[in-house]
Write a structure and sequence with these properties.
129 residues, alpha+beta, three-stranded antiparallel beta sheet, 3 helices, rod-shaped, TadE-like_dom, Pilus assembly protein
Length: 129
């Protein structure tokens, strides 16, 4: 029996052994890439929202701005936390800061990496500044 005939099916067997690992790697890259995209979207939306809060002192405008910068997420008011609710500097707090925290639960598409994950974007800025 020649060497070629003995090695005939080895490539198919090796491919069958490596294919699940390659697929897991590709799916993992796609899932975590999507999570990273959502995280950067949340962070950007929170940063723009806190800018509006610091300059205009309006919780309603802040939430509208956050939703405008993350339109694909369909954020609710309960997911957008603005603290403090007023951005007024006083003698006791001359350098008050505003903080906007946006939370969003994501569900992995494949379910291979757990059920879900809650992402958080946070922005902080000095009031009127």
């Amino acid at each position: 029996m020649s060497r070629k005939q003995r090695d005939r099916g080895s490539a198919a067997v090796e491919f069958a052994l490596v294919l699940p690992l390659l697929l897991l790697l590709v799916v993992g890259i796609a899932e975590f890439g999507r999570a990273y995209h959502l995280q950067t979207t949340l962070s950007g939306a929170a940063r723009e929202g806190v800018r509006v809060m610091a300059l205009h002192n309006s919780v309603t405008s802040t939430r509208e701005t956050v939703r405008a910068y993350a339109p694909e997420l369909s954020l609710k008011d309960s997911q957008i936390r603005v603290t403090p609710t007023t951005c007024v500097t006083t003698s006791s707090a001359p350098t008050a800061t505003a903080t906007v925290t946006v939370t969003y639960p994501i569900r992995f598409l494949t379910g291979l990496f757990g059920a879900d994950l809650t992402l958080t974007g946070k922005g902080t800025m000095r009031c009127h500044g």
